[in-house]
Amino acid sequence: MKVLLIGSGGREHAIALKISQSKNLQSLYCLPGNPGTENIATNIYLDLSNHQQIINFCIKEGINFVIIGPEKPLVDGLSDALRKSGIKVFGPSKKAARIESSKVFAKNIMAKANVSTAKYCEFDIKDYDKALKYILEINFPLVIKADGLAAGKGVIICANINDAKQALKQIFEDKIFDDSGNKIIIEEFMDGEEASVFAITDGENFICLPAAQDHKRIGDGDSGKNTGGMGAYAPAPIVDNELMQKIENDIIKPVLKQMKDSDNEFSGCLYAGLMIKDSIPKVVEFNCRFGDPETQVVLPIIEGDFLDLLFSTASGNLNKDAVKYNGGCAVCIVAASKGYPDDYKKGFEINGLDKNDDDIIIYHAGTKKINDKTVTNGGRVLGVTAVLDKNDLKLARHKVYNAISKINFEGMYYRKDIAQKAFKYFKQ
């Protein structure tokens, strides 16, 4: 099978590495890929917004299957264009991708499916005064979210009225989220602990991969601004077998049914971002693709043919037996550029990439090659990941922090508390 993988981040490096292990893979291309994928695939450079150019490449090279990693090409309708040309694609249609591209759409789907989520109210940019009046009448803390795509950063948690007023000004007047903030939702703040679950679905049937826990905030102790994710670990012990059954029956099944019944059938990876309190899961958000950095810890702890799982999904006949949990664990720490998630500088040489053991995977995200040197090229630069074949998160955590200490670049920053939340579930 000849495969084209769309994307350039740590998630795509993880997907490329996993499908490279498939006996069914003949050749793998990454568009555009990164310095990590170039060792296991052929990186190519095409205009992602030019769908016909991508289709022409697939036809010329005999590509059998396309996997779309990031949300933007899905929201822009690349999967639809490829399918119309007879090319199999893993990733939902433009219509179905609205479950991520519009918070309001997702909330409406959840309401019709009777799925638990935060109470909310939506406002358009022309409703600025109404939004200001609304925040005077509700309890704090509250959460303000841009309706559209914002690279995982379109969420502002407001502790008080001044925070909320500032957030509204930043979104509606300063346009910090560009047009993605032309519509917002203001919702109640949900207490609890977060978890991420990937449901791989052909539109009707699905399987859930091991649950992970992401660390969204930039600072230790979940402080500071939201980011695309500063680290993750899997499996997340907060999601035991009983809770996973509840998630599948009360969230995934009814949402997939509602998507199908409303002529928005979803095929691909439905990512459920959850808030869990007293063993009751509520939906924080849905995404239309694999999460980053959760993918970097979930894929290493499944065994089987991951390419077969994705291809059978795209073919409309999900092979539920293609993969299974292998009993291990993984912890990923994101090495970020100083200043992220705000302004940061690029082009600093990365040292120490070759100084780690076999149980460490270094996923490239915001990197590029200049001559023979690997340099920083983004906010989230690397995902340093420890993978064990046994479920010992404490040991994995120790190994990954030892590994990241051997890597450096100017302005490198990472959180020091990744995976600590898991330890309260373990007997001392």
Annotation keywords:
29% strand; Dna Ligase, domain 1; Rossmann fold; 428 residues; six-stranded antiparallel β-sheet; alpha+beta; D-amino Acid Aminotransferase, Chain A, domain 1; five-stranded parallel β-sheet
Q: What's a concise summary of this model?
A:
By secondary structure, this protein is an alpha+beta fold. It has helices spanning 10-19, 51-61, 71-75, 78-84, 98-101, 103-113, 128-135, 161-173, 241-261, 295-298, 306-314, 393-404; strands at residues 2-7, 27-32, 42-43, 65-68, 88-90, 120-124, 142-146, 155-158, 183-188, 193-201, 206-208, 213-214, 217-219, 223-226, 231-234, 268-277, 280-287, 302-304, 323-325, 329-337, 360-364, 367-370, 373-376, 380-388, 412-413. The chain folds into three domains: 2-85, Rossmann fold (3-Layer(aba) Sandwich); 119-188, 2-Layer Sandwich (Dna Ligase, domain 1), CATH 3.30.1490.20; 193-425, D-amino Acid Aminotransferase, Chain A, domain 1 (2-Layer Sandwich).
